[in-house]
Predict the structure.
Amino acid sequence: MYGTEVESSDITFLAISFADTVQVRKLPLHHRDPFDRILVAQAMNNCLVILS
């Protein structure tokens, strides 16, 4: 399904859940970019850290 590089790595794909969309609506509007907001919501809901 994915390239061999991805399949042989420790990368895990995280689907957007309903709980993530609910969390997005609770976030303050510091950043209005929808993609950034869903990343933050997923990080919060899954106890993940965002590095950039």
In short: The chain has one domain: 4-45.
